[in-house]
Amino acid sequence: MRIQKEKELLINLLKTNQVIKFGKFTLSSGRESDYYVDMKKAITDPQILSLVAKIITHMIQDHQIDKIAGPALGAVPIATAVALHSDIPMLMIRKAQKDYGTSKLIEGDLKVGDKVIVVEDVTTTGKSLLKAVKAVTDNGGQIERAFVVVDREEGAVEELRKEGLQLEPLVSITDFK
Question: N or C: which end of the chain has fewer CB within 10 A?
Answer without folding.
Answer: N
